[in-house]
Structure formats: C-alpha cells, structure tokens
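Q: Sequence in, structure out?
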Amino acid sequence: MAKITLDRLRHSYMPDPKGPQDYALKELNLDWQDGGAYALLGPSGCGKSTLLNIISGLLHPSEGRILFDGKDVTGLPPDQRNIAQVFQFPVIYDTMSVYDNLAFPLRNRGVDESRVKTRVEDIAAMLDVTEMLGTRAAHLSPDNKQKISMGRGLVRDDVNVIMFDEPLTVIDPHLKWKLRSKLKELHQKVKVTMIYVTHDQTEALTFADQVVVMQEGQVVQIGTPVDLFERPAHTFVGHFIGSPGMNVLPAEVKDGATFFNGEQVTLEGAVAPGEGRHEIGIRPEYVTLGSTGIPATVRKVMDLGRHSVVEAVAGETRVSAIVEGAVPGQGESVHLTFRPDQTRLYRDGWIATKQERAA
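A: Exactly. Output:
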C-alpha cells in the first residue's frame, strides 16, 4: 500500500502544446492517502483514462511527477510500480478453475503454495465464491466472472494500489448494486489504496471516501460525497451529481444584491468581489412551491413514487423542485422560494459566495 502524490502533473498528446486548450490533463496536484478509497468521476473524454494510464505507467506525463510513498516512480514501467488493475471487461482464464485464476497472480510471483491457499480462500470467502473454487471459469455468469477478475486484483496483499477502470459497465443493472456493496465491504476489510474510475455518479458516491470530479481535463472539485452534493464548488459538479441535478439559473448582481427573473434572491452568504457571468445554483431538494415567491408556471410533473419532480418555468428558465405529497397540475401558476442557506452564486462556473458560519 502507498500514499500516491501527483505533483504538478500535466499531459498533452501534442508534441508542442501552446496553451491550456492543448492539454488533455491540466495541472494537477493531489495526494491520495495510504489505504483510502477514491473515485475519479467525470464524463467520457474528461481525462480520467489519461490520468489512470499515467499512474499505472502506461503513459509518461508531459510534465510533473508521480510519487508512491515519496518515491518518484514517473520513469518506472508498469511492472515495477506494483499495481493491480481491474478492467471494464473480466480478465480471467476460461480454461482454469476459479481457484487457479485467483492463485495465478501469487504463483506468478513465486509465493509459497500454503500462502497461496490461505489468500485464495480468504478472497473467495469475501467474494462469496467459495463454492465455485473448483468450477472452470468458462462456466461462470458474467457477474461472477467480474467477481473473479476483482479477486485477482485483491488477492495480492503487497500492492501499492488497486485501480478499477469502470469495472461494472458490462454487469446487468440489477447486479451492479450487489457488486458495488461487495467492493465497499472488501475495501473496509483489506484497507488497500483503491482508485475507482467511472462516469457513473452512483458508483463513485457509494464506493469512495473522496471523489475527484473531472471536466475537460481539469479537476473541478475533490471531496466527500456529502461535500459534492451539499456544496458544489463548480456548476458542473452540481449539474453532474444529483438526480435531477442542481438548478443553474441566470443571475444579475447589482448594488450588492442578486436577482433571478427580476426577483431578489437571498444567498447563503456574502458574494466575493469580481466580474463575470453570474448564475444561481440551487438543488431541487431546496426549492419550495407556494403562494409567494418567484412566479412560475408548471411545465410537467414526474411522479417517482416517494416524491415528485415538478418542472416549472420562470420567465424562460426551467426550474426543478422535488415535492412530497400533493403537486400542482401542468399549466398551473405557482411561486418558487429557495432555501437561503442552500442558494449560492457562481461566477464563470465557480462558487462565489462565502458560507455563513453558525454562531
């Protein structure tokens, strides 16, 4: 296990990059603590795979360093970084038994057979595949094949880090929750540094202690799942995380006050000075429908069982609200109010309000 440090890391696939727009991975400084569970989250093309390949040694960065426990490994090839990796598709030997698949990484390193037996049986118990140890891998279901692929990554207890590259993409949706829960449970038992790469917010938020959210090669926020939901540092984070995502509303700031659709809006705290494009961010959970507030018209209502999502239009802007109980009908007039301590101003995408401290 190791603490992983990314020091002024940048990468461009161009031989002579001229500016930030030419970098697939913009400057990154980051520490991943020994034994932590981390996720890299973002849409396709945001730089997740580039960063993963740099950490694993498959790609040499244009600039910066990668350190494992303070040792510079930037120039080391993958086989000298002591990394285990679990890929999107199961990497197993169909002609081997489950036992031999799990034993292979250890036997390949000359581990004593008694130790191999102990580790294989421990991992098999964690994965609930003990009864399958004698089964040939070709006969397994897709989810069990991916369990074995995960087990091959987990069976060694001397690795610096285990990296998961979208490991549940090919798994049936009804099995994903089960495997996500199992992976979280495994991390709590083995305490190995794990990095989980995904574009799925549910996977990232249920697995990781800390989530690194990326957009267009840039890290826009690092935090706990609660941090990302409760106080997005960037409008992209607010929009990307949550279902539905945060409302991002055009705003005007004048004479120290903030307005949406001509109505003054109370924010969580003071606005940092500066110029730029202003927007209000408010999650649907903190929008209330009532008889006073910002005038709007209900556009549609989606009944999700435990609650409904009401989409209203204020002026020309759509605003979503999560409502429990009775809801207005399509076309009805309503008024919107925003919970002040959850209403934030963003400038050019970045948060521009200061959180008020409780007395």
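The domain at 4-230 is CATH 3.40.50.300 (Rossmann fold).
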